[in-house]
What does this fold into?
Amino acid sequence: MLFRDRRDAGRLLAAHLSPLKDDPNVIVLGIPRGGVVVAAEVARALNAPLDIFIAHKIGAPFNPELAIGALTSNGDVLLDEDLIDELRLHHDEIRREVESQRGEIARRLALFRKERPPLEVAGKTVVLVDDGVATGSTVLAALRALRKQSPGRLILAIPVGPAETVARLARECDEMVVLATPEPFWAVGRFYLSFDQTEDVQVVDLLEEAARRIESKD
It folds into this structure.
């Protein structure tokens, strides 16, 4: 399955989530940056509020691309202790990386949200959206962090991901909507005709547009 772009993927996901349309208890959370483009289409179709939920990979000191954990925007840290032990990483090294990512998350929250408070999660039907998963480490961290905030129902919606990762993530939520689980998987971007980098300004514009839509509804 090939998606034209992230907006196309969002519209296809929204079609599978249509029973939630106009439900005042539903909120949509996108994982920046690319996941917000997908989430914006879902939120628009469901007539639901849109917000961000940030989960950043914590990379190994010697290889930033190797995930040894993740940090979320509400401060939760999820570490792969088995991998850390296997790599014999010192906790001071990990602490420095966590603090670096904490600063980046704070910067993004200030940039993306401006003065808007985060959406209330407790008791809500929360639809968490990303543009796809590979290892799923950041989405896993986001799901576990959101679960601690006591949502009424936690739904993960993604266009594409490997079957093994999808099965693992499905155990962490109440419902999962995934459009494709191709094998072999390769990488998320291989399943989009257009997978350009999403810029910060696009995320800001989408969040502001969604806020105006909800305000006009009220």
Strands lie at 26-30, 50-52, 55-60, 63-72, 77-79, 125-129, 153-160, 175-180. Residues 91-113 form the longest helix (23 residues). The chain has two domains: 6-54+119-217, 57-112.
